Amino acid sequence: MYKSANSPIMKSLLHTGLLAMVVVSTTLLLNRPVAAQTAPAASKPKTYMNIGRNATASEVAAWDIDVRPDFKGLPVGSGSVSQGQALWEQKCASCHGIFGESNEVFTPIAGGTTKDDMKTGRVASLTSDKQPQRTTLMKVPTVSTLWDYVYRAMPWNAPRTLTVDETYALVAFMLNLGEVVPDDFVLSNKNIAQVQAKMPNRNGMTQKHGMWTIKGVPDIKNTACMNNCAQHVAVGSVLPDYARNAHNNLAEQNREYGPYRGVDTTKPPLAAMPSSGMMMVSTASAAPKAAGPADLFKKENCSACHAPAARLVGPSIADVANKYKGVANAQAMLEKKVKAGGAGVWGAIPMPAQTQLSDADNKILVQWMLNGGK
Ligand code: HEC
Ligand code: HEC
Fold first, then answer.
1. What's the pTM?
2. Domains of the chain
3. CA distances from 57 to 32, 63, 64, 148 (A)
4. Whole-angstrom distance, CA of residue 238 vs CA of residue 240
5. What number is the average pLDDT over the span 170-195?
6. Based on the number of CB atoms within 10 Å of its own CB, is 205 exposed (0-12), middle (13-18) or buried (19 or more)?
């Protein structure tokens, strides 16, 4: 499996697992094979009162589209690299770039793999620092996953709209971008196993994380990063305007800890951001209601750039408190700075002017920061 825990392909696999469990548990509950589940619930209303109804065969079929690494579930079909190229330019290039190279919306699809990797089945650049960014083809060990994911989830703004043959063509094209298959290649259910034997990272799968076997012990000790961890993470992806809110507010769909949680897609990108390539956190709409300076700090979006102890875009609250300890006039001076914005004290990145802030709130926030966020 991927080394990168957050990859959407992995999420999609987990998803598949969950969905499969739902289907299975329905079956167990009713103690009948899936194929027999065509009768409507109304036929047995008394026995199964209040616990829903059988999934119909077509409902099961609609969810049951996963393609396994042994190609179970892969539909019959085919598509060529050149068909894939035409489709790609029409449906995918706007987000992923003509050559799958774009890192605007997501990490690049192709790049970072070599002919040697195809021989070893292990992508060498994964373990060197020379490759700036991990690409899909560097990571993915199984071509079935690529097929499954694209068919299930892409294009991002219109998932489940691709036909089987279109999916073959697109996968062929992406593999061609990585020179895994030649320009005149036609990918099909018949030759996909041969392609698997050439996947650059096919031997990169590990189960050492303990998550995929029942007896596995997941890595919950977190020994890798208990000190000297990276303090500043610059996220290099932005959503194009037209797709910004395509899946509702990302800020409300992500975990609620860590400095970067997902941009508030109900709002336009902040124009005055120091870097438009930076994903900003706003929990404003997710926060229940403002109470106390800590909530105000979030509500006013200060927390997008200032964290308690780590430097984000701006200095940490602790650093600000330290710097101005015992400095006369700090309160008034900083209130002015927050309102007007500016750069140069902590580095070259400017703080945008916080003109939306009332004087009363400004006072509360600066006081709170000078007090170390207490
Ligand atoms: C509107 C923008 C958009 C379009 C159009 C789009 N994608 Fe994507 N694609 C994304 C985003 C965003 C992700 C990451 C999704 C996530 O994090 O859940 C992604 C992820 C992927 C991945 C997974 C990469 C990985 O390493 O996990 C593949 C493969 C992919 N897209 C292929 C395609 C193909 C093929 C098409 C055209 C049919 C397409 N995409 C069209 C936005 C787009
Ligand atoms: C877009 C990012 C961003 C946002 C949002 C933001 N700040 Fe800042 N802030 C910065 C940066 C960058 C600096 C460092 C500026 C400098 O070097 O002069 C800074 C500096 C500060 C300082 C120290 C100023 C100094 O001169 O030492 C205070 C206090 C502060 N911010 C408070 C706030 C408050 C309160 C809010 C919310 C109302 C807020 N910031 C919102 C980026 C931001």
1. 0.52
2. 1-33 (no CATH), 60-196 (1.10.760.10), 293-370 (1.10.760.10)
3. 13, 10, 10, 21
4. 6
5. 97
6. middle
DSSP annotation string for 76-107? S-EEEHHHHHHHHHHHTHHHH-TTS---SSSS
Distance 245 CA to ligand 2 centre (A): 27
Residue the block writes with tokens 């408190």: 321
| CB environment 162-193: b (16+ within 10 A), e (fewer) | bebbbbbbbbbbbbbbbbbbeeebbbbbeebe
CB 312 within 8 A of CB 306: yes
> CB under 6 Å to ligand 2: residues?
273-274, 300-302, 304-306, 313-315, 320, 334, 337-338, 342-347, 349, 351-352, 354, 357, 365-366, 369
Q: Is the CB of 180 under 6 A from ligand 1?
A: no
Better-scored residue on pLDDT, 89 or 251: 89
Q: Which of 130-134, 158-162, 349-353 has the highest mean pLDDT?
A: 158-162
